[in-house]
Each structure stands twice: as structure tokens, then as C-alpha cells.
Design a protein that fits this description.
single chain, Transcription Regulator spoIIAA, five-stranded mixed β-barrel, globular, 13 helices, five-stranded parallel sheet, 4 domains, binds iron/sulfur cluster
């Protein structure tokens, strides 16, 4: 009997990647097979992102492309655009189902309503009621490194952000379930656990908070790296900051600044000041000197004057981030800031982006050059087509390593390896193999 086939396209953040991993395992448990591409798939799922207009446009382009190449296949939209009324109106003739991700366990029930089941081998389509989507064990993208979602949704309502509308309010996974997933991963040889949620540090379950969760994971024996993302500055407390000294917690903090100007931060509904942000970075660098700090910033928020933008420039120069994701503001439908006049001209947004990019390029280079000549442990993720190993440092720097013997290069994948840093650019480091330090 011909198996049903599926294909998944993921746009956007780590949370979307983790969601797609759960969609894949959900389908494979129901005897679906991965197709080579969407043209050959009975069912294509696009995990969409609505954080920027460009991500949204990519989804529209993909829908057109897929329907043209595979008019009889079925198409499901999940992720951040799945609940947007304007998107549903625009795509309803091409898309079979708009699926809010927390409805994943009901996928086939919902498709059935749309007569989709007629196109597939119905025997395979078991419907399980009451299953929670985050409890589904995913099909991990790598055996060495795993995203572990600890929750979904956001209660913060930053004025520019669609997430609270697209994903709903915060829902957290029970602590036992997270611990059991992490233990299972480590038992199978996973080396890097990345806890993810829109705001990890507002995690709570059974009277335990995020720092408690980290402490419980640290009790699990074995050699592994523990990372988390994203943290909100208003929820980063001293307990969590002090925990950053634990050797198994990677010396990397991603903390979104968004603006260096207090009035703009208030308009963004961020609930902290630029000075509070400065103080957090001072404290956390005090706890761990080798800590790398990355951030997000928006330029050209409605009403942002040149003087207000200069406050972002000032804080970038002062704090010397290791990296920053710089976004030109674009209004997102349904958000509070979309009601404000988007009055900073395109050219000016571009100029502001370039100013901050230049500062970041210089600070990243300076930070990376500090590693020159040092020996450090890195985790190797894979070998590229040119035979170079690639991986990450604990501080989340990209690392490349040339190993002559290709068999040896392949055998390094998924291992902690000691390297000596021989060159540094603003985008990463290059190392030489010192000794194989296979934990
Ligand atoms: S904290 Fe703010 S920016 Fe982050 S997901 Fe929540 S609403 Fe969006």
C-alpha cells in the first residue's frame, strides 16, 4: 500500500524549528514518510513566522510556488500566521487548513472537516484526543543538540509583537515532563540541550521557577552543555544571574534590548529602562567573565527621533555586544504599535541599521580576537562539502576546523573537542585540533 508522504518548510525562530520537529514525529507515528520535496508530498506543512513582513512575504511566495508545482497535494499553514484573519482571507483558496500549533494533536480531525481525508490512506490517520502538542516527542534535527521547548506563548504584549496574538498566552510544560525529555536525550548521547520559550525566565510549574528547573537539570549526571533562549530583561533576577556561574550552563546570554531610549522602551511596553539593562549586563558579566552577550534591537520604531536613536548607538558602544539581530521596524497587523504612524522613512531606517551593524561588526571582531591563541572545548556539529568541520564554542561562536583526514573529521561530529584558535573574524573563529577530548 502506498504510504502517505509529507514535507515541512520552516520559517523563523528556534520555537518554529522545534514545532516542526513535533509535526514530523506526529506524522511519522501515523505512518507518513518524508518526501524529497513539496512537489512529491501528499501533505505539505509550512511553519510560518509573522515577526517581520519579509518572513510573511516568504510564506505567500511559498504557497503560490507549492500550489503551482503540486496542485493536488494538500497544504497546511501552521505557526504565527495560522490565526491571522487577513492571512486566512488572502490564502483560503490555496490552503487546506490553517492549524494553530497547539491544535496539532487534532490535525486529522480538522482536516477531515475539510474533506482532506479522501486524498489520503484513511487507515493511517489515527486521531488522538487530549494529547498536548508539547508532550509529543519530536523528531530531533540532530542527535547531538536538541531544542527542548519549556512553554509556548507570551503574556508581555510588547507593542510591536504579534506573538501573544499568534501563539496565545503563556502555557508551560510540567517540570517532570521536561526533565524526562532531557534525561532521555542525554541517555541517547545528546550533548547540548537548548531550553526554549518566548520568555524562558517567566517559566513556572508546580511552584518551581526557571532557576529551579535549571538546577534540577544540572543534577542530571553526564557531560553536556545547557543553553536557554530567550530571556526578558524585566524577568532576569539575581538568582538566575548567579546560576550563570555553573560550568555546564553555557557562557552565553541572549537578552533583547530593543532600544536604548527610555521613551521608546515605554512606547514598546518593554517595562525596563536602558539603565536597568546596563545594570543587568554589568551583573552577569561580573558573575562570568567569559560570558558572551547577544541582543535584538529595532530601528525606526514609530516616532523614534535621531536623538532617541543615538541612545541605542550609545548603549551599543558601551556594552560591546558579541552579536545583535538588528531589525528595521515594520508594523505587524493587530499590534498596538501598528496604530501609530510609521513615520521614520525607509532610507533613514536603513541608515540606522547600518550604523548599528558597523558597531556590532567591530565589537564582534574585537570579542572574537580575544580568543586568538587560546585552547578551548568546542562541540562539532558536522562536516561541510569542503571537508571543514563546523561547530560552536560554549559562548555560541561559530567555529570552523580543517581536519585533513576526512574519516577523522566525520568521527568528530557530536563530540567535545579541544581546539586552538588560530584566526578570528567578526562572524566566527577558526581552530586547529589539539587533542581529541571525547567525553
Ligand atoms: S516578550 Fe515581547 S517581543 Fe518577546 S514574544 Fe513576548 S511580546 Fe513578543
Amino acid at each position: 500500500m502506498k504510504k502517505n508522504t509529507y514535507y515541512i518548510i520552516t520559517i523563523g525562530c528556534q520555537m518554529n524549528k522545534a514545532d516542526s520537529e513535533r509535526v514530523a514525529s506526529f506524522l511519522e507515528e501515523r505512518a507518513f514518510q518524508l518526501a524529497a520535496n513539496s512537489k512529491e508530498a501528499d501533505l505539505t506543512i509550512i511553519t510560518t513566522c509573522g515577526i517581520r513582513q519579509s518572513a510573511e512575504d516568504r510564506a505567500y511566495g511559498l504557497v503560490n510556488q507549492i500550489k503551482k508545482a503540486n496542485p493536488t497535494g494538500s497544504l497546511v499553514i501552521t505557526g504565527c500566521l495560522a490565526k491571522r484573519k487577513d492571512v486566512i482571507r488572502r490564502l483560503k483558496n490555496q490552503v487546506d487548513l490553517f492549524l494553530p500549533i497547539n491544535e496539532l494533536p487534532n490535525l486529522f480531525e480538522l482536516l477531515k472537516k475539510n474533506n482532506f481525508q479522501e486524498k489520503l490512506n484513511a487507515d493511517e490517520l489515527r486521531v488522538i484526543n487530549g494529547e498536548k502538542y508539547l508532550s509529543i516527542i519530536p523528531k530531533y534535527h540532530s542527535p547531538y543538540t536538541a531544542f527542548v521547548p519549556i512553554g509556548n506563548g507570551c503574556n508581555n504584549f510588547c507593542s510591536y509583537c504579534v506573538v501573544p496574538y499568534a501563539r496565545g498566552r503563556e502555557v508551560y510544560r510540567p517540570i517532570e515532563e521536561i526533565l524526562s525529555e532531557v534525561k532521555g536525550l542525554l541517555a541517547q548521547g545528546c550533548k547540548e540541550i537548548i531550553l526554549i520559550a518566548q520568555n524562558v525566565n517567566s517559566y513556572h510549574s508546580s511552584e518551581k521557577n526557571f532557576a529551579d528547573l535549571l538546577r534540577l537539570i544540572l543534577l542530571i549526571p553526564g557531560e553536556f552543555w545547557l543553553r536557554f533562549s530567550s530571556s526578558h530583561p524585566k524577568d532576569l533576577d539575581d538568582d538566575l544571574i548567579n546560576l550563570m556561574s555553573e560550568p555546564k550552563i553555557c557562557p552565553h546570554l541572549h537578552l533583547a534590548l530593543q532600544s536604548g531610549d527610555d521613551e521608546i522602551l515605554t512606547k514598546m511596553n518593554r517595562k525596563y529602562s536602558a539603565d536597568h539593562f546596563r545594570e543587568l549586563i554589568r551583573k552577569v558579566r561580573g558573575v562570568r567573565a567569559d560570558l558572551a552577550v547577544t541582543t535584538d534591537v529595532i530601528v525606526g520604531f514609530p516616532g523614534e527621533t535621531k536623538e532617541q536613536f543615538e541612545n541605542s548607538v550609545k548603549i551599543f558602544q558601551e556594552l560591546q555586544f558579541d552579536f545583535a539581530y538588528i531589525s528595521r521596524y515594520s508594523p505587524r497587523p493587530g499590534t498596538v504599535s501598528s496604530l501609530l504612524v510609521d513615520d521614520v522613512k525607509r532610507e533613514e531606517k536603513k541608515r540606522r541599521e547600518e550604523v548599528l551593524s558597523k558597531i556590532i561588526e567591530e565589537s564582534s571582531l574585537k570579542k572574537n580576537q580575544q580568543y586568538l591563541g587560546k585552547e578551548m572545548v568546542v562541540l562539532i556539529d558536522g562536516v561541510n562539502k569542503k571537508g571543514r568541520c563546523y561547530g560552536k564554542t560554549a559562548s555560541f561562536k561559530n567555529l570552523w576546523l580543517f581536519v585533513q583526514d576526512q574519516e577523522l573529521a566525520k568521527s568528530l561530529c557530536g563530540k567535545f573537542i579541544k581546539v586552538k584558535i588560530v584566526s578570528a573574524t567578526s562572524s566566527g573563529l577558526e581552530g586547529e585540533l589539539v587533542i581529541e577530548n571525547n567525553f
